[in-house]
Structure formats: C-alpha cells, structure tokens
Amino acid sequence: MQETPLPSSELPPIPSKRYFTIGEVSDLCGVKSHVLRYWEQEFPSLNPMKRRGNRRYYQREDVLLIRQIRSLLYDEGYTINGARQKILGVESLETTAAPTDLSSFIAEIVMQLEDTLTTLKA
Q: How many domains does the chain have?
C-alpha cells in the first residue's frame, strides 16, 4: 500500500537550527531518506555537507530547496527533468531578487544571529 504524501501546506515549521540530519530533514519535508539521497544525484544544487562516515548535514537553505523540489514533483506534477529545469531557472533569477525578498532574507539572517547570540550568552 502506497503512502500518500502530506500536502506542502501541512509540513511542520523549520526550527531555527544551523544543521539538520537526514532523518530530521526527512520528517520536515515529508519524504523518506532514500528519496533525499536520490534527489542529491538529480539536483546539483542540493549538496549537503558531509562529515565523518559520510553523514549528511543539511542547512536551512537545503531544507527550503528540498521543500521546493517536493512541491514541484508532488503538488505540481513536474517530472524530475522538469523540476530540475525549473530550479535552475529560479536559481538564475535569484541574483535579480525583488527588494521584498531581500528584506525577508535579511530578517532571517538577523533572527539566526539573535539565536546564536542567545546560545553564546547561555
């Protein structure tokens, strides 16, 4: 029996952490670990950091990219090739981001810095 994936709108919020394990990303994005490893081969921009024993550590940007890939494949019906082209097209447009995108990006950076400061004070 095939498991029906959660709609993208029902995915849990992404915690404010610097790194996530493959298991955490699997839970956050509603896809299994083997799917994430496969997507790493298919989407060159998805390249988590690897440490001891080839353990993967994903950053927030990776989680957002995985959610975007998931949405393209599961919600919008794209093929792997179509999703890859869409992602590559979006990445080339990121350099000409609108000011609202830039302000939300800066707000995100400020939030991460505040979290780091709180951690350092503790």
A: 1
